[in-house]
Amino acid sequence: MQFSIEQFNQMKHSAEDFYNSIDKIRCPYFAEDVHFNAKGLEHLIFKGYNKTRPIEDQFSRFRHLKLASAIIQNSKTLQGYWRTQKIERIRRNQKWEKVLRVVSYYEFIAVMDSHDSKVRVKVVVKQVEGSEKHFLSIIPFWGSDKNTGERIIHSGNPEKD
Asked: For residues 112 and 119, is the Cβ–Cβ distance under 8 A?
């Protein structure tokens, strides 16, 4: 998809405004709220600590961000689940600490109408042991390898997808 830097900036600002307007959304699958905090928005921009996503990847995620809230709000079936232990930064006793925690990732996949076409996307919700569930990412389900042009399915480590 071709776009200018002005189109990217407009899409980014629009997506950030939309994201910041959401506090939490009730998910029927969990029968509880999924929170939209700064961690989810940061994940759309950064692939890891101090590693910005390619601008094309960011644009695609921002472009489909509005679908994430609809998918969470309507999902009654879980399509994927991954549980692991990992080092997480948590705030404890008024300071930030790195601690080993159990982390769960929940994946919801849907085919939705977006920009006059159907798009297949995956929404990832994350829960760190002892904290609330929060939106982590929206992943346009089909990507293509930049070298070969072949379609790839985004899967594997939800922290990096």
From this structure: yes
Distance of CA 161 to the CA centre of its chain: 9
Amino acid at site 59: F
Parallel/antiparallel/unpaired status of strands 142-144 and 24-27? unpaired
Q: Is residue 61 within 8 Å of 138, Cβ to Cβ?
A: yes
**By the 8 A CB rule, do 101 and 4 touch?**
no
Of the ranges 14-18, 79-83, 92-96, 138-142, which one carries the lowest mean pLDDT score?
138-142
Residue type, 142: W
**CB–CB of 129/55 below 8 Å?**
no
Is 72 within 8 Å of 143 (Cβ atoms)? no
The tens digit of pLDDT for each residue in 114-158 reads 766 788 889 999 999 989 999 999 988 655 566 766 555 454 556
Give the residue, 142 or 14, on which the prediction is more confident: 14
